[in-house]
Amino acid sequence: MTPGKKWPAAGKVLGAVAVAGLCAWIYYLYQFAMPGREARRLVSRSNELFAAHDYAGATVDARMAVRLDPNSAGARNCLARNLYQSGDKAGARREWLKCIDLGNSDTANQTRAYMKKYHL
Fold first, then answer.
1. Residue 21 covered by a domain
2. pLDDT tens-digit profile of 63-86?
3. 88: buried, middle or exposed (CB in 10 Å: 19+, 13-18, 0-12)?
4. Which domain holds residue 68?
5. Fewer beta carbons within 10 angstroms: which end of the chain, N or C?
6. Are 11 and 3 in contact (CB under 8 A)?
7. Domain with 81 in it: what CATH number?
């Protein structure tokens, strides 16, 4: 016997619980899982645009990646490189310093090497 025949209200409650669970899962994906994936895609596209010497387009994608995942050292490093190439040395320095704070020791060392190379 199904809950809906013996206890009509139980079927409605179970349906509401299932909908609430689905909503919670969708919220989780959009808040935590999807932004990181989209940020990585934008960084990849930014790298392609950078290689094609489209520095303005590369900077736009890198900025969007940082907005989606502000704790990504890779996205900030990509943005800093694009800003430097576009002539915004102060912006590049700011992003590289944030990158040092966020990254692991390898990322921080690589970033320090960039800053030394570019005299920032």
1. no
2. 999 999 998 888 999 999 999 999
3. middle
4. 35-117
5. N
6. yes
7. 1.25.40.10
* CA dihedral (92, 97, 102, 108) positive or negative: positive
Residues with pLDDT less than 50, the chain: none
CB half-sphere exposure, 31, CA atoms < 13 A:
6
Mean pLDDT in the chain? 80
Q: Within a domain: residue 23?
A: no
Q: Whole-angstrom Cα distance, residue 109 to residue 53?
A: 26
Who's near 52: CB < 8 A, 6+ residues apart? none
Structural tokens at position 90: 């102060």
Give the chain's domain count. 1
Q: According to the 3-state scheme, what is the secondary structure of the chain?
A: CCHHHHCHHHHHHHHHHHHHHHHHHHHHHHHHHHHHHHHHHHHHHHHHHHHCCCHHHHHHHHHHHHHHCCCCHHHHHHHHHHHHHHCCHHHHHHHHHHHHHHCCHHHHHHHHHHHHHCCC
Position 87 in a domain: yes
